[in-house]
Write a structure and sequence with these properties.
Length: 60
């Protein structure tokens, strides 16, 4: 699984609260810390994408 954060991110921090192993806060928005999401975090990443209030998290 791959994940990215779009420029529409508002830096609310919900994704970081949901999966701090994959997301971190950058200067202006959340960022993904890994190229490939480890299998044990895939459910949390999907939850973060589903709950993102501006739909800025894209899961491939």
């Amino acid at each position: 699984m791959r994940v990215r954060v779009e420029d529409t991110c508002t830096a609310c921090g919900l994704c970081i609260d949901t999966c701090p192993e994959v997301f971190e806060m950058g200067d202006e928005m959340a960022e993904v810390m890994t190229d490939e999401v480890p299998a044990e975090h895939e459910d949390d990443v999907q939850q973060a994408a589903d709950e993102c209030p501006v739909e800025a998290i894209v899961v491939d």
